[in-house]
Amino acid sequence: MKNTVWLFAFSLLVTGCLQESESDLDRTIKRDDALVEDYISSNAIDATKAQTGFYYKKTVSKPENTQFSNGDFIGIYYEIKSLDGQLIDTYMDETKEPLIFKYSQDGLWPIVVAYAAGLSRVGEEMQVFSPSYLAYGSYGYEQLILPSSNLDIKVKFVEKYSEDGLKEREREKILQFINENELEGFEEVEEGIFIRTVEEGDETKTQSKTGSNLTFDFKLFEMGANSPLMDSFASSQPASMSVGNSDLEFLNEGLKGVFPEQELEIIASSFNAYEGSIQIIPNEVRSDLVEKGEQIDRVKPFTPIWFKAEIRTVQ
After folding, report:
1. Which residue stretches of the chain have pLDDT < 50?
2. Residue 304: closest CA among 215, 202, 183, 213
3. Of 138, 43, 142, nearest to 85 (Cα)?
4. Where does the chain show beta strands of DSSP type E?
5. Strands (E) located in 45-150
6. For 264-278, what is each residue's pLDDT tens digit?
7. Whole-prediction pTM value?
8. Does residue 180 sit in helix, strand or coil?
9. Using a CB cutoff of 8 Å and minimum separation of 24, what contacts does 240-248 make?
10. Contact partners, residue 13, CB within 8 Å, separation at least 6
């Protein structure tokens, strides 16, 4: 995704469903600031106001631990409610692995959690009180998220990951998935990219190489999911690409050396696929945002993909 999280959140607030003018935006900010301040005061909460406009209170402090910095990969548990107590999402089960996001301008939505990470250290816990303009803005989703919701967020910053560690984590998940499902024939052609041929192609025709133009039908799944996130068969519109020129490395590697009529499958880590995908909380609103035309990936980050393709033409 090429837009920053701030521009993404800002577009939802300013040019989304509400279509607010600049003066409307100013009034929204003043209104939300006042509502959050009143909530803090009326509940006698000892909270600090951050420069960006949210309030926070550290419920567990670890001053001796490492502070997060830009580009870090962070694991969290969280609970998000509106200030009136409406539960939006919770992920507090620590028997599951943490939710991971990249601490950057395009790593997480709502952005206020990323801002809070900048004030936190590994092992710390925080309660965050956020105005809507740092959260979901004017966006609403069924009865789960109401437009202009100010938030009360509990977040535990439990882990800091290395990029190499996350790559190995996904590679191990892929190998385990292949083994548990007895998927024979997969070979690792590049680190984190596994390919197998399901049906041989027509070797009397042109074989693809870097620079070749391909058309193909495909289904794309999050690894382990039953329903595809994308399906060109359903639309009857084959995809096309120039080998080596895709932003998706698994396609550049996986579609070299193929023939027309060949059927193949690729399982790849997120670092070879949708590496720039934004982490969205709650995840169920991702498809709704895509349908509304937001420039985000259908595939959530730090999740391997399973790609099934039938090659139509090679030129």
Report:
1. 1-19
2. 183
3. 43
4. 48-49, 55-60, 73-82, 87-91, 99-102, 108-109, 125-130, 151-161, 187-190, 193-199, 213-222, 230-231, 239-242, 263-268, 279-280, 305-314
5. 48-49, 55-60, 73-82, 87-91, 99-102, 108-109, 125-130
6. 999 999 999 999 999
7. 0.89
8. helix
9. 240/213, 240/214, 240/215, 240/216, 241/213, 241/214, 242/211, 242/212, 242/213, 242/214, 243/208, 243/209, 243/210, 243/211, 243/212, 243/213, 243/214, 244/210, 244/211, 245/211, 248/272, 248/273, 248/274
10. 20, 25, 28, 132, 133, 137, 138
Distance (Å, whole) CA 250 – CA 222: 14
- Rounded Cα distance between 102 and 8, Å, is 16
For residue 148, give the amino acid letter: S
- Residues 152 and 126: their CA atoms lie apart, in Å, by 11
Quote the tokens at residue 59.
């419920």
Contact 60, 124 (CB under 8 A): yes
Token pair recorded at residue 15: 């040019």
How far is 256 from 244, CA to CA, in rounded Å? 8
Indicate the length of the chain as a whole number. Answer: 315
